[in-house]
Specification:
Strand content: 15-25%
Distance between the termini: 50 Å
Strand order of the largest sheet: 1-2-3
Shape: elongated
Low-confidence stretches: none
Radius of gyration: 21 Å
Structural class: alpha+beta
Number of strands: 6
Length: about 160
Amino acid sequence: MHCPFCRNPDSRVIDSRTADDGASIRRRRQCPACQRRFSTVETASLSVVKRSGVSEPFSRAKVISGVRKACQGRPVTDDQLAVLAQRVEEAVRQSGQAEVDAHDVGLAILQPLKDLDQVAYLRFASVYQDFDSLEDFESAIDALRREATDPTADA
């Protein structure tokens, strides 16, 4: 770690503690050359591999952007979308992998979106799961109805 003051390539860790509910580590460092102290924050990187093979960092903003289109005209707030994106990131991180497939991110969106708004869920699922007939919509709606009458039933 380079010192941000004198650019010395070495530093000594003085103190470490978790931050952001354990999602990152905050380290207090001291430069042996200039003796100045500075802090660093370390987080585990999470990358999403797209269909094209390109890898990019996971972005809650991209999750929100994609879901916002499905929620257009629905009574869904920005705060609810932020919580949904957080739930999606937590679910994806629980896989324990540093790189996840974009398809897996989409799957992680479905359940929190279903819990948030069923109409938005149907809109998102129709595009994500490539509905191509009325029967696809009917089966998805039937599954939602079964879940509403029997919460222990799996869709």
